[in-house]
Automatic annotation (TrEMBL), chain A:
The keyword tRNA processing does not apply. InterPro entries: Bact_response_regulator (IPR050595), CheY-like_superfamily (IPR011006), Sig_transdc_resp-reg_receiver (IPR001789). This is Response regulatory domain-containing protein. It comes from Winogradskyella damuponensis. The modification 4-aspartylphosphate is found at residue 53. The keyword Phosphoprotein applies.
Amino acid sequence: MTKKILIVDDEPNIVMSLEYTFKKQGFEVFIARDGSEALEILKHHIPDVILLDIMMPNVDGYQTLSYIKESESLKHIKVVFLTAKNKASDIEKGLKLGADKYLTKPFSVKKIVSEILELVT
Amino acid sequence: MNSYSLVFIIIIYLAVLFYIAFLAEKKRQSKWVNNPYVYTLSLAVYCSAWTYYGSVGIAANSGIHFLPIYIGPVIAAPLWIVLLRKIIRISKHHKISSIADFISLRYGNNRFLGALVTVICLFGTLPYISLQLKAVSETFEIISGDNSYISTVVIDDSTFYVALLLAIFAAFFGTQNTDASEKHKGIVATVALESILKLIFFLIIGTYITFYLFDGTSDIYEKISVSDNFKDLTTLGKVEDGFNWFFMIALSFMVVFLLPRQFQVTVLENNREKHLKKAIWLFPLYLLLFNSFVIFIAWAGKLTFGSTENAEYYTLLLPLEHGNTFLATLVFLGGFSAVISMVVVSTLALSTMVSNNLVIPYGFLDKFIKNQPERNSKYIKTIRRISIFTIIITAYFFYVLFSKALSLYSIGLISFVIISQLAPSFFIGLYWNRGSSKGAIIGMIVGFCIAIYTLVLPFTLEVYSGTDDFRQYGLLGIEALKPYALFGIDFLSPPSHAFFWSMTLNLFCYLTFSLLSKGNYRERNYAEMFVDSKNFTNLQDSALVWKGEAYVTDIKNVLARFLGEQRAARALRIFFTKYELSQDTQLADARLINFSEKLLTGSIGSASAKILIASVVKEEQISLVEVLKILEESKENIVSNKVLLEKSNELSQLTSRLKEANEELISKDRQKDEFLDTVAHELKTPITGIRAATEVIMDDEDMPKEIKAQFLKNILQDSDRLGRLINNILDFEKLETGGLLLDLKEQDIQRTIAKAISSISQIAAKKEVQIVNNNVHSFMLSYDEDRILQVLTNLLSNAIKFCEAKTGKIIVDYKLGNQLIEISVSDNGKGILEEDFLYIFDKFYQSQDQNTRKPEGSGLGLAITKQIVEKHNGKIWAKKDIKNGATLVFTIPFK
């Protein structure tokens, strides 16, 4: 069965690389430019995993994750933070909110893929 | 009326007064006794038999000269609020019991000064009391029509018995309490009642004579105006009379404060300071009423009897002449009332002085120290009672020996002049702290001697020698020493003359010796306390500079001798509580010494109190140097306290400044953290893009060409972004740390605007946003073109960013203001949110409402813009209240 991934990031160049890579890995990829777009998509599609940036306009990553964890139908979705914020306090906060993994930018695409695969299989 | 019925009336009247005094003593707290009216009426003890009978005599003989004696007090009354209030406060605080005590305390509990004042008061008051007795006996004779009273034997003289009765009254109600500073409510109440009676009776007889015997005031006036010397009687006359008037007014002005009986009622018997407020207008009114009929009675008497031989008793003689014995008796009783109040209050005041300032300090102190408390208090009372009897009896004999030859008026003035010798040390001492005891003593003695020489001696010698050689030719026949014309001043009346010389020399001596000699520390202490009585509460007990060794138990023993064990213990308890000292304190300090002296002052006078306390205290004399040192130390303390206060103020200011600085630092630190965070984020983003894209291309060799090209384009884009960002950060850092130097040149702003528009026109064209340059006029101005270009480009790209594609329109405009040029960039985009106005120029600030793609910029654009504008001494702001779109404005001043 095809795995579904939702990539949430406001940087189009980064999204493009990720989208290309995951599609090649056989994922069905959804793209959102911020939290509100992501939540909109989640109304219609339930992905297996969400790759979530934190610093975004409008609804940021933290808010988006909180919303997901409050929703009965969404809270089972694996969430991976992918952000430039790499302070210990940020990481702690992210994991406390219920993220399954916390990965930092800049990143190795291969590493991201292996982490995600580890989560969904 | 025969003398027996008159005696009977007198006895009834005295019984009534005894009863009233008794009631008042019994109900000391009653409103009937403690009100401003009783206080004011008691002040009218000023109007003695002299006023009652003497004024008419003067009016008949020499016209309106009876008036100055009342004008003085009337002038003095408004000053009471200031002057008397001060005196009353001091007296209450120090438990002063007489004017002798007051003056002696002012000059450092000076024993000799207290005694001297007492002696002067005795000399001044004895003739005055004898004057009252003379009035009683003469009026008695007139009413009873019996002249057998002029008995050669004292036993037969009814006046003697009257004097004795008065002495009993004064002794009984005047010595209820050992502490003479306690109020004598009974005596005050009777004095007030008598003041009403004497005024009413005098007004009745005035009305009777003026309107019943004659046809009103104008009738009397018309009749008298045809007499020979009428003009002399109603006008002031020559310049000399003016002098006489002036001196008499000054004299009465002083004595209304100084007469022992006046001091007694105005100061010592004052219950509340506020009673003064009523007294200052009510008392002058009383005097005015009293004098309203005087002149008409005098004229009426003159018209009726022709001669002015017995003019002083016209008020009695006129009704008797018309057979009205009842009215005459009323008048007699009015006069008798005036006599009783004067005699009783005077002897009360004098006896306190004699006991507290003469007898006790000069003879009985040693005895007191050895005695039991109950016996001491009994002794003091006995001394006072004996004094009262002695004074009245002495006055009686003075009357028998001298007064018969003199008029009431002249005796009264002799008293006034003698008493007025207290004036310089009393009044000046209140306001001049240099006034010293030496000055006071010498001034008083000199003044007193002159008064005796110029006033008392002439008539005494005349009575004894029967000739008036002394008056005619002066001492030893020396012209300049003629008693009524010293050094050739012969145009004044004898009392004015005596007052002039005695007061001038008294004042001169007082001032000179005060300036020449400084008092000891104790004296200066009290001087300070009297003069600076406003700070009295601060000074109080601790004001005394005192050095020595004393034990509380010793002091307690002394106190107990006069106050009794219980009261002494209670007083000490109160003292210790007040100053928060332990109840079993062993060593006494200056405050306790002063406190104890004050406690004893009421009973035995201030000088004696000082001596008594000194007997148990090993006081060390403080040298002047030490006093100065103490003063200097306290001064230094004050100064260093001031310095400390200033320092502490400075410190707290510094603290708050530090706090502010710290807060600023913290906020700066936070800002720096945020800045670094943001910078890191902004740097990481393009790097992430580059890294990811590169990795994808590398790992996928069979990537389609177009996709590969897209990835490469992304890499290029991100690299550019990275370069721009680094440039901006460097720029910003340079601007913020002030390291940037402007390259100022005179150039055309219009050209710069055009340049900026053209440089950004490609981006605008891409989004199909229109840019309009509104003002095409050139204007030369000095600025750094590259930097202003940066500003304009920033503003323009911002505007493009917020404009809708295709419909967007941007207007660049400039206008000239006051010494500056104002350049604006307006767009028709979505505008700036109200909450953003304050922050849009902050670095990395991004509106929450920004749902477009991230700008090309770095988040530093507007912050840099702001720095550049401010570097040019201009300002930048976003215009508020714009209908649609946003307008950003900046200014560049001309110079």
